[in-house]
Write a structure and sequence with these properties.
27% strand, 6-stranded parallel sheet, alpha/beta, oxidoreductase activity, acting on NAD(P)H, 2 domains, ADH-like_C, 16 strands, Quinone Oxidoreductase, Chain A, domain 1, globular, Rossmann fold, NADP, NADPH binding
């Protein structure tokens, strides 16, 4: 099979396919024929050699994808030919990932699918849908009728959180630093888009019930100021690079408000919810935020370059012609 494997830090232009043995099923893992995969910031980080200790060379990159089961282990709950999404579970970091024609995937990192949608749409969903749903449901326990602020709304997880929050019956407020992105956020379901100047509380005097923090610890306490008494903030991302709080004290958390976080796995995304989203997309009730579609492993370098540029809104998706 063909795959993108790296053995050292490389520029995006060096992401070239090589020939590797096609994986075979082992206990707890099935082989998936990869149909499409999204390109993520964490894969850029790994390509640069900046990942945490669970990443080792040589490695096939790719933390997510969609495809069809091609070979099963004896203990598999799946069948050959079944559509699946795959995400996290060590893919692309501790084990070889989805930048390949075939991938050996843990059963715990797969979700069954059944859809006629184009792979370019389905391939955009797994990681950003899992993170968005986990943040809104597990992290914030968001309920229909509540208001939620998505800080970092033009990120892929932010975009999906806007669309999913609206689908779940919440009133969604979102932020972006670039006025040119406002229309896109509104089109996905944001009731109001705020230009992030670092002081959002002044723009939301009535406050919100809950808030999703995707920018980082640098804006966390300003985000807290937008949440009403009894509200909750979920820390999920550090788009601005802030992941830690120096000299943290619990007294930093405003009285009467709750701070939580989200960093989950495929098990947090119910197959029923994935199916509901796919049906909503098919019925044109929910838009998948795709920035650009690429064809073949030879275009992975271009996809990573475009992702790093910050000039696009939405997910970069690579479709494999297999």
């Amino acid at each position: 099979m063909q795959a993108i494997q790296i053995s050292e830090p490389v520029p995006a232009s060096a992401l070239k396919s090589v020939t590797l043995p096609t994986p075979q099923p082992v206990a707890g893992h099935d082989v998936v024929q990869v149909k499409a995969f999204g390109v993520n910031e964490s894969e850029v980080t790994s390509r640069k050699g900046e990942s945490d200790g669970d990443f080792h060379y040589p490695r096939v990159l790719g933390i997510e994808g969609v495809g069809v089961i091609s070979a099963t282990a004896p203990d598999s709950p799946y069948q050959v030919g079944q559509q699946v999404a795959m995400m996290m579970g060590g893919l692309g970091r501790a084990i070889d990932g989805t930048y390949a024609e075939y991938c050996l995937v843990p059963h715990t990192a797969m979700i069954p699918l059944k859809t006629n949608l184009d792979w370019s749409l389905v391939g955009a969903l797994p990681e950003m849908l899992q993170t968005a749903y986990g943040s809104l449901h597990v992290g914030l326990n968001l309920q229909a009728g509540e208001s939620v602020l998505v800080r970092g709304g033009s990120s892929t997880v932010g975009l999906m959180s806007i669309a999913l929050g609206k689908m779940l019956g919440a009133t969604v407020f979102a932020t972006t630093r670039k006025p040119a992105k406002v229309a896109k956020l509104k089109a996905l379901g944001a009731a109001r888009v705020l230009i992030d100047d670092g002081k959002l509380a002044a723009q939301l005097p009535a406050g919100v019930d809950k808030a999703l923090e995707l920018v980082g610890t640098t804006t966390l306490f300003d985000t807290f100021a937008t949440v009403r008494a009894g509200g909750r903030v979920c820390f999920t991302g550090g788009l601005a690079g802030g992941w830690e709080i120096d000299h943290f004290s619990p007294f930093m958390i405003p009285s009467g408000k709750t701070l939580t976080s989200y960093a989950g796995e495929a098990r947090d995304l119910p197959a029923e919810l994935f199916d509901r989203v796919l049906k909503a997309v098919a019925a044109h009730e929910l838009e998948v935020p795709v920035a650009k579609v690429y064809h073949g492993l030879e275009q992975v370098g271009e996809a990573q370059t475009n992702l790093e540029s910050g000039h696009f809104v939405g997910k970069h998706v690579v479709v494999l012609a297999n």
